[in-house]
Amino acid sequence: MQLTNQEAERLIRDGIEALRQGRATDAKERFGRVTQTGRANGQIWLLLATACRAQNDLAGEEAALDHLLAQDPRLLRGHIMKADCRARAGDERAALSFYESALLIAAGQQVPSDLVPELRRAEQWVTQLKARAEEQRESALISHGIPPEGRSPRFQKSLDIISGQKRIFVQEPTGYYFPELPQIQFYDRANFDWVPAIDGATDAIRDELKRHLAEGTESFRPYLRHDSSRPRLDENELLDSREWSALFLCENGQPFEGEIARFPRTWEALQEAPLPRISNSPTIMFSLLRGGARIAPHTGTHNARLICHLPLIVPPGCGFRVGSDVREWEEGKLLIFDDTIEHEAWNDSSEDRVVLIFDIWRPELSEQERREVSAFFRGPALD
Q: Rounded to 5 degrees, what angle do the CA atoms 270, 272, 274 make?
């Protein structure tokens, strides 16, 4: 749809006037015509979202907000409105994420006076949603046979931390924290009796990988992908980029039988490791980092596990840092590290780097603690 600048400006003026007069349908139609040109900026998408909200068009409002936040990921009003949409849709977890991100953004700027009441409302929502989530967690754990009086002290501290009653120090997972675990950046391979078996399978694993790569890398997908149901607060240049891509045999506990069939020796070898078979683990993937690419410093989601790297294809100029410890990958020599400690990776060569990545249980967790963590991640018991 083609519009001259003058026509677009007139539609915007008319739409704003229609909103002021309470004619939401007319306003939505005019703003919609402008967005259909493909030239709408964030302000136009915000106006369209406002008109849709006045019409009680939840789907239209949220679609407009997704466009808005794609253009301006840190727009405070957009985060609050998106949170409201998710709350009205009954998605309390996503609503909590966006209300919390709104408060985080507001902490670093001068907030317009008309948004102050909205921020107070967001704070109330966060308090209510966290309390409700805590009640649901307690109910779920009890349903799995883990009442408060039967919990290990460290597991109970983990619940105190996730509810905000205690703080995290040193390790910095983005989701779940299990307390009183040692602060170790790289673990000593000699302490794991299954490591030699996986090291010894390197040639077979690499052969399977090279046969697959000979057909191309189309089956690898960007490791970081934008999810419109969650807030985007960073400007990571690798988001939706194939510069850092992955081929999954298992993702967040979900095995992909087709890929497993293509890598039978790989899958067989990893069964020697203590894989945490819970709702969001294990993840087993080939991670490909293009030449010249760099993975920015970040931390993992939870520290009840460790991450393993089996380097398979490592050109010169590749490096890896966990905390203050910088190492080079050595093909066929497994690395075991705590990914809740800040880490980063780089490939300064002109060739692709590929490592096999999988997660394992932290060796310090007792069998009881592993059962408790598994129950926590499973959520409510099914009838």
A: 90
In the predicted structure, residue 315 carries a pLDDT above the cut 80: yes
Is there a contact between 355 and 319 (Cβ–Cβ < 8 Å)? Answer: no
Q: Are 308 and 334 in contact (CB under 8 A)?
A: yes
Q: Which own/partner pairs from 111-115 qualify as long-range (CB within 8 Å, at least 24 positions apart)? A: 111/76, 115/76, 115/77, 115/80
Token pair 């170790």 in the structure block, residue: 184
Amino acid type, 369: E
Q: Is the pLDDT of residue 1 over 70?
A: no
Is the pLDDT at 353 greater than 90? The verdict is yes
SS3 state of residue 322: strand
If phi > 0 it is left, if psi is from -120 to 50 it is alpha, else beta; for residue 170 that is left
Task: Answer yes or no: are the C-beta atoms of 197 and 269 closer than 8 Å.
Answer: yes
* β partners of residue 318: 347
Distance CA 276, CA 268 (A): 16
Residue 342: name the closest of 169, 158, 162, 173 by CA.
Answer: 173
Q: What percent of the chain has pLDDT over 90?
A: 79
Residue 233 — very low, low, confident or very high, per pLDDT cuts 50/70/90?
A: low
> Are 272 and 358 contacting, i.e. CB atoms less than 8 angstroms apart?
no
Question: CB within 8 A of 337, min separation 6: which ones?
Answer: 185, 186, 187, 306, 307, 309, 322, 343
Instruction: Let me know: does 345 contact 336? Beta carbons within 8 Å.
Output: no
Residues facing 186 on adjacent strands: 337
What six digits make up the tokens of 172? 């910095």
> Do 363 and 192 meet the contact criterion of CB atoms below 8 Å apart?
yes
CA distances to 167, 177, 288 from 173, rounded to whole Å, are 12, 6, 23
Read off the pLDDT of residues 66-109 as tens digits, 9 standing for 90 and up.
Answer: 999 999 999 999 999 999 999 999 999 899 999 999 999 999 78
Alpha-carbon span 32 to 29, nearest angstrom: 5
Contacts of 348 (CB under 8 A, 6+ apart): 291, 292, 317, 318, 319
Tokens of 3: 């519009």
Which pTM was predicted? 0.73
Query: CA-CA distance, 340 to 154, in Å (whole number)?
Result: 17
Length of the chain: 383
Given a cut of 50, whether residue 367 has pLDDT beyond it is yes
